[in-house]
């Protein structure tokens, strides 16, 4: 799967000029509100025409302004999950789900309703009216409805943004499931670094209508471009679940050479996971601390130090190949004598890693 | 009918009124939906002119509307003669003419009601239907139309009620011929023009009140059902 997007558009004073190529898996379009993410995804879907640009999926030209090609949205077979669920109020959940099947010129086996319904955990909702659903349930039905139209590409425009934290936590596992079990490329718009860190394989960072960075999620998030919110800074590490302590609901994850304890009884051993460690949640110690509640004490050496602002310093700590970012005050750095090459211990509370 | 004390002529007028109103309502419905759609969604030159023309019967004296119909749809009128020659349809001094007059008079009310409910349809839902593979016509049939249903029902009832009460344009266009164009309204008018006609006028008045009440109750009932399908709250 290769999606090529090039778009130029002038919307009042806002100018969009972005192009990127995305491969399989989840590609996150990340950026602040107003950075042009939604404009781009609407252009991909055929809901908007760029002044100048192209949208090509696997060699099939959907939009090409130079060649005057514009495939209308209903012939693209691009599923779209909107920020609001946009369920049809006059149809039951079941009929909402099957709406797209009336039209799908199905190529290959159609996704079975039962499988999608089970994947999204909406079995008990089928006969209900959309009004009777909670926000999280609505959004799951909307995702199911898009999937059942047998799309070639799934576009998701901040599908969690309208939900509160509890509902987000409810829907998130289903999105992971989707990524891991369905063979369908996804373009996912988000302004939440936590969502991107957890879901995306590839990240496209948007800023003021232009692409600021593109690359694999781990690379982009660990070397964030200048526009990232400072408070969002953190390290994204990949590892594998080693063991799960069901009694204490703690999972042990093996990174490149160190181990990390994170909360989570739902994880299964052997599963590949990503852990994002916000830099604000990492303490530094010059000697190994003892009798400490924090479970993660990682030994490493200071690789780099950058002044974050007047009062704080970002310290990159290399813990045997796993790079952890810690934000400490300049005062602490001076007091402890932190310098490049110094051996330090990075201390991370397990509860800070709650997803 | 003896119990009500209605004469045969009165019954004829009542049945004719019902027939004229129902035909006027049903025949103008497709046009009403089409024009409402154009006015609600269309972005074309002359949209405000169309709006004015549609609303004209509401503002013009009914007699004027009737006279314009007579000029246009009369046997020798430009449209009337065309329809007569090519389709054998004659309006002047026929019950069909009464239906046409009623339809024209009721048209603004019907269009207005449908237009408002089309404008209330969330276009984001239509956009979503499009991304699910529905072509524009299908989106209209499966999303827009069902969501507009309460407005369409209200528009139909309004149109029916207006047709039942229509008098001026009808009598100007197709006159007041018992058994052909004499509706309840024109029959009451005739009764009031002759000595001792008060009793007949009163009987028909009671019938008119009864029909209007039934129509309104039916409209309440139908729009409640339609509304529940769309918004169960």
Helix content of chain A: 10-25%
| Strand percentage of chain B | under 5%
The greatest inter-chain interface is formed by: A-B, 28 and 24 residues
Give the mean pLDDT of chain B. Answer: 89
Low-confidence stretches of chain B: none
Order of helices and strands of chain B: HHHHHHHHHH
Q: How many helical elements of chain B? A: 10
Radius of gyration of chain A: 22 Å
Commentary on this structure:
The complex is a heterodimer of chains A (355) and B (233). Chain A is of the alpha+beta class. In chain A, strand 4 (52-57) and strand 5 form a beta hairpin. Chain A is globular. Chain A starts with a strand and ends in a 7-residue tail after the last strand. The longest helix of chain A has 17 residues, at 165-181. Chain A folds into two domains: 3-228, 3-Layer(aba) Sandwich (Rossmann fold), CATH 3.40.50; 234-353, OB fold (Dihydrolipoamide Acetyltransferase, E2P), CATH 2.40.50. The relative contact order of chain A is 0.12. Chain A has eight helices and 20 strands. Chain B is mostly helical and 233 residues long. Chain B has one domain: MetI-like fold (Orthogonal Bundle), CATH 1.10.3720. Chain B is globular and about 70 Å long. The termini of chain B are far apart.
């Amino acid at each position: 799967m290769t999606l090529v997007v090039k778009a130029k558009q002038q919307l009042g004073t806002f100018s969009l000029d972005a192009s990127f190529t995305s491969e399989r898996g989840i590609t996150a379009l990340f950026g602040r509100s107003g950075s042009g993410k939604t404009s781009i995804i609407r252009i991909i879907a055929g809901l908007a025409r760029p002044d100048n640009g192209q949208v090509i999926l696997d060699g099939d030209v959907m939009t090409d302004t130079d060649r005057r090609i514009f495939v209308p949205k209903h012939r693209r077979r691009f599923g779209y999950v909107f920020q609001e669920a946009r369920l049809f109020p006059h149809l039951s959940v079941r009929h909402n789900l099957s709406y797209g099947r009336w039209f799908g010129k199905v190529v290959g086996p159609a996704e079975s309703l039962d499988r999608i319904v089970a994947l999204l955990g909406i079995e008990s909702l089928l006969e209900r009216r959309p009004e009777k659903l909670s926000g999280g349930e609505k959004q799951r039905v909307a995702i199911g409805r898009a999937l059942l139209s047998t799309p070639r590409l799934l576009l998701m425009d901040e599908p969690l943004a309208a939900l509160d934290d509890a509902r987000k936590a409810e829907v998130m596992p289903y999105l992971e499931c989707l990524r891991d079990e369905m063979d369908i490329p996804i373009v996912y718009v988000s302004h939440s670094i936590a969502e991107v860190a957890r879901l995306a394989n590839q990240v496209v960072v948007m800023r003021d209508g232009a692409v600021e960075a593109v690359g694999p999620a781990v690379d982009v998030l660990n070397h964030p471009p200048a526009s990232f919110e400072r408070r969002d800074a953190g390290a994204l590490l990949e590892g594998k679940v080693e063991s799960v302590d069901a009694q204490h609901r703690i999972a042990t994850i093996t990174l490149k050479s160190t181990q990390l304890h994170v909360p989570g009884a739902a994880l299964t051993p052997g599963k590949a996971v990503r852990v994002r460690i916000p830099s604000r949640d990492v303490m530094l110690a010059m000697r190994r601390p003892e009798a400490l509640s924090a479970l993660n004490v990682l030994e490493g050496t200071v690789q780099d130090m950058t002044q974050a602002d007047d009062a704080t310093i970002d310290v990159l700590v290399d813990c045997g190949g796993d790079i952890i970012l810690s934000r400490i005050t300049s005062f602490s750095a001076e007091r402890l004598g932190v310098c490049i090459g110094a051996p330090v211990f990075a201390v991370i509370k397990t509860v800070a890693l709650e997803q | 009918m003896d119990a009500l004390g209605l004469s045969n002529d009165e019954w004829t007028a009542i049945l004719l009124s019902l027939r004229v109103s129902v035909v006027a309502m049903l025949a103008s419905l497709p046009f009403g939906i089409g024009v409402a759609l154009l006015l609600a969604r269309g972005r074309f030159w002359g949209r405000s002119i169309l709006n004015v023309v549609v609303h004209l019967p509401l503002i013009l004296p009914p007699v004027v509307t009737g006279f314009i119909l007579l000029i246009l749809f009369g046997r020798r009128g430009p449209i009337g003669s065309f329809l007569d020659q090519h389709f054998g349809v004659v309006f002047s001094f026929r019950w069909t003419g009464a239906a046409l007059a009623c339809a024209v008079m009721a048209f603004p009310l019907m269009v207005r009601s449908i237009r408002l409910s089309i404008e209330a349809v969330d276009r984001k839902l239509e956009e979503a239907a499009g991304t699910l593979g529905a072509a524009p016509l299908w989106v209209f049939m499966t999303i827009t139309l069902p969501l507009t249903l309460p407005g369409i029902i209200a528009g139909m009832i309004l149109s029916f009620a207006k047709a039942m009460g229509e008098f001026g344009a009808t009598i100007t266009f197709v006159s007041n011929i018992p058994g052909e164009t004499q509706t309840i309204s024109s029959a009451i008018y005739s009764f009031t023009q002759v000595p001792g006609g008060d009793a007949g006028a009163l009987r028909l008045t009671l019938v008119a009140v009864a029909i209007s009440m039934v129509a309104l109750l039916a409209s309440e009932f139908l729009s409640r059902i339609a509304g529940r399908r769309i918004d169960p709250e």
